[in-house]
Amino acid sequence: AAGNRDPRRFTDPDRFDPTRADNEHLGFGSGIHLCYGAPLARLEAHFALTALLPRLGTAELVEDPPPYRQNAMLRGPRHLTLRF
Ligand code: HEM
The pTM is what? Predict the structure, then answer.
């Protein structure tokens, strides 16, 4: 049930580490329904993070953890407020 954060599969699973090696995650699904758009999404994420990260400087979360949506299908923060 831990999915991409399974501590038996990933070292330090709750840490965001885009350089993680051997990162066989389930973010794009798997098997015959594997995401068609994964190569495009990876390219977009690469360019977005490359442009954004150097500009973030000392940004930190105002609320940690941020408020999450009560939705098992679309899991994620409702909003992400940062302090600079
Ligand atoms: C970060 C961005 C994205 C994430 C996290 C994501 C995630 C996923 C996941 C988890 C599935 C599998 C759903 C299942 O097993 O039922 C999926 C399927 C799919 N995705 Fe994405 N996706 C992303 C971007 C895109 C983009 C940009 C496109 C199209 C340009 C796309 C097109 C599709 C299609 C057509 C399927 C259905 C594949 C099938 O059922 O055979 N996705 N996606």
Answer: 0.81
Torsion, Cα 23 62 51 28, to 10 degrees, reads: 30
User: Residue 26 CA: which ligand 1 atom is closest?
Assistant: 10
Identity of the residue numbered 24: E
- H-helix or E-strand containing 61? strand 60-61
What are 32-74's pLDDT values in tens digits? 999 999 999 999 999 999 998 898 888 899 999 999 999 888 8
Compute how many other C-beta atoms are within 10 angstroms of the C-beta atom of residue 82: 11
In order of 25, 27, 67, 82, the CA distances from 57 in angstroms are 28, 27, 23, 11
Distance CA(7)–CA(13), nearest Å, equals 6
Query: Which residues line the pocket of ligand 1, CB cutoff 6 A?
Result: 27-29, 33, 35-37, 40-41
Contact 51/72 with Cβ under 8 angstroms?
A: no
